[in-house]
Amino acid sequence: MNIHAITAIYRFEMSRWGRTIGQSIASPVISTCLYFVVFGSAIGSRIAQIDGISYGSFIVPGLIMLSVLTESISNASFGIYFPRFTGTIYEVLSAPIDYIEILLGYVGAAASKSIILGVLILATAGFFVPLEIKHPFIMFFFLVLTSVTFSLFGFIIGIWADGFEKLQIIPMLIITPLAFLGGSFYSIKMLPVFWQNVSLLNPVVYLISGFRFSFYESADVSLPLSLLMIFVFLMVCIVLVRWIFKTGYRLKS
Amino acid sequence: MSTILSIHNLNKVYASGFQALKNINLKIRKGEIFALLGPNGAGKTTLINAICGIVNPSDGKIIVDGFDIINDFRATRSLIGLVPQELSTDAFETVWNTVNFSRGLFGKAPNPAFIEQTLKQLSLWDKKNNTIRTLSGGMKRRLMIAKALSHEPRVLFLDEPTAGVDVNLRKDMWEQVRHLKNTGVTIILTTHYLEEAEEMADRIGIINKGEIIVTENKTDLMKKLGRKQLILDLKDPLGEIPAPLTKWALAFNPEKTQLIYTYDSTKDDNGIAQLLADLSSAGMTFKDIHTNQSSLEEIFIQLVKP
Ligand SMILES: Nc1ncnc2c1ncn2[C@@H]1O[C@H](COP(=O)(O)OP(=O)(O)O)[C@@H](O)[C@H]1O
Ligand SMILES: [Mg+2]
Q1: Among B14, B104, B110, whose Cβ lies nearest the Cβ of A253?
Q2: Which end of chain B has the smaller Cβ count within 10 Å, N or C?
Q3: Nearest residue in A to B86, CA atom
Q4: Residues in chain A within 8 Å Cβ distance of B53
Q5: How near does any CA of chain A get to the CA of B109, in Å?
Q6: Confidence of residue B43 (pLDDT cuts 50, 70, 90)
Q7: What number is the ipTM of this complex?
């Protein structure tokens, strides 16, 4: 194990984030505040409780997941796309490191940022609504698992993308809609049966449901099913990444 | 002398179907400066990138200091430092951070004293806290060298190190390369200038269209390539070479307006004085006389068709 290399990549990625810390932290925190003002107070006060939880509190897990998903993908995809774009990737490719070490550096850093962000949003939410976390360990486990899985997914996008547009397209066209339709702001039980079944095809539903369960013991799908779905997605990403490094896809010619 | 790098039957076919390297066989000796000379597109960068792990070889074997570059990649890559042809850097990083990053990436524990020494040698010490985007082109090139040296490699690849570097800096750079050689580092550099290869290298390999045409000691090769031409512009085109001059092995240009005499510029007696005397006694007159050194392209033609 080339520990020095993992540390070097990890530090490099964290300090890149540190240089734009204001932007990286402030923008998700501000948008969370806006969500609370609009949905939590203005609209939420006219919405009945869901499963005995006030609307403002109900949306907290979904809001955190929304930010964690998009930030994981954008951080990790940018982290690997940028060296490819500038050409500095030559150094990583010619270094005595294997793909596990590359992943630990890049994906580890992206996931760390997402975890920090998730905790910050949680703290911000605490100012607006009463929070209760029934299963803090499960909560943290979900946060870490989601951060890692979607950072890995972002890493794959960063390798696949051959332009800045493609880097943006997946988060914008796929993840944001899936997250919004995945029960961030409502329980899918509130939908007609047909749309409930359609929603079950949306992987984000399982994330948000499981995450919300850890807070309020209220879920759209069972906890084991949620965990299983994330693991399946994580496995798919791992298989893809292995293939990428084995073939050198878009990394080596 | 022992071999530090050996390449056996290496082929590279890019995904486009283009064959950039054709059955390359090459041995590099420990401690030498080897120049890989060839025109643009010859395959120099492809060859270096294959050795360093940036390009996947299609076929063949590469051994560095007894280790296979694929099966024992950790061992071979730790031994190698690479300064690529393109100046690619992280614009917003500082000099100090980027060089330390490189050292870590190559698996070495931090060693601030060594990094300081390297930066001083490359006249970058006073720039250590500058962000890279504030450096000039020459400084960036030296920074790339500092990064490549940060993990104390035993083999250093310099891919067209003097491209875009002015004459003074070029001299400094050669000075540094010689210094590295003295510390026992094997250096492989690419260039498309014959003069550069001549000045720096112990041995020269010539590559053209993906094939290594020749590898030879510099002095032997320069002897071979030392041929020059004396070109005589005729006043009136000639039908054939006059009989008294046949012993000179003169040639015509296609239009028969020039007489061409090929001689060895490394010999003391190149025969020019005698030739001119013979020509004037044959009563031949010329508009102009000039000499011509074989260009790289001509050398290739010469080497491919001996
Ligand atoms: N990724 C690639 N895909 C297809 N062809 C390539 C690729 N990279 C280089 N080539 C081709 O391979 C040949 C050798 O290129 P290169 O090794 O860069 O030459 P040199 O460094 O000697 O100028 C050139 O004809 C170039 O166009
Ligand atoms: Mg080149």
Answers
A1: B14
A2: C
A3: A87
A4: 93-94, 252
A5: 7
A6: very high
A7: 0.90
The arithmetic mean of pLDDT across residues B98-106, rounded, is 97
Burial B244-255 (b: 16+ CB within 10 A, else e): ebeebebebeee
Amino acid in position B149 = L
Chain mean pLDDT for chain A: 90
Residue B92: list chain A partners with CB under 8 A.
16, 19
Inside any domain, residue A75: yes
**Who has greater pLDDT, B82 or B271?**
B82
**Under 8 Å between Cβ of B52 and B214:** no
| Yes or no, beta carbons of B107 and A96 under 8 Å apart | yes
The encoded tokens of residue B245 equal: 């001059």
Tens of pLDDT, residues A179-208: 888 888 888 888 888 888 888 888 899 989
Residues of B with Cβ-Cβ distance to A16 under 8 angstroms: 92
Going by the DSSP 8-state scheme, the letter that residue B205 receives in this structure is E
Range of the domain at A197: 3-247
Q: What's the CA-to-centroid distance between B299 and ligand 1, angstroms?
A: 22
Q: Are A237 and A152 in contact (CB under 8 A)?
A: yes
Q: How near does any CA of chain A get to the CA of B95, in Å?
A: 13
The C-alpha of A157 sits at a distance from chain B's nearest C-alpha, in angstroms, of 21
Q: In what order do the strands lie in the sheet with B59-64?
A: B19-29, B3-13, B59-64, B67-68
Q: What is the pTM of this model?
A: 0.86
Q: What is the Cα–Cα distance from B257 to B240, expressed in whole angstroms?
A: 11
Distance of CA B204 to the CA centre of its chain: 7
| Nearest alpha carbon, ligand 1 atom 25 | B41
B53–A94 CB contact, under 8 Å: yes
The total of structural domains in chain A comes to: 1
Q: Is residue A252 part of a domain?
A: no
| B306 pLDDT above the threshold of 60 | no
Q: What is the mean pLDDT of chain B?
A: 89
Is residue A110, in this structure, part of any structural domain at all? yes
B74: closest chain A residue by CA: A96
Which residue is associated with the tokens 């299983």?
A228
Of the ranges A199-208, B41-50, B205-214, B274-283, the best mean pLDDT one: B41-50
Ligand whose nearest atom lies closest to the CA of B43? 1
Q: Which of B55, B93, B107 sits opposite A5 (nearest CB)?
A: B107
Q: For ligand 1, atom 27, name the residue with the nearest CA.
A: B41
Domains and CATH numbers, chain B: 32-53+74-222 (3.40.50.300), 227-304 (3.30.70)
- The predicted pLDDT at position A210 comes to 93
pLDDT at B293: 67
CA-based nearest residue to A234, from A198, A205, A207:
A207
- Verify whether the Cβ–Cβ distance A86 to B89 is below 8 Å: yes
**Token pair of A253 as six digits:** 């010619």
